[in-house]
Amino acid sequence: MSTVRVNLILTNHEDEVLVKRGHLKPEQVRWLEAKDVLVDTGATHLALHKSTINGLGLRKINEIQISTAGGKVPTGVYDDITVTFRGRSATFQCFEIRDENPEIMGVTVMEILGLRPNLVTEKLDLLKADDPYPDGYMFIY
Question: Which fold has domain 4-136?
Answer without folding.
Answer: Cathepsin D, subunit A; domain 1 (2.40.70)
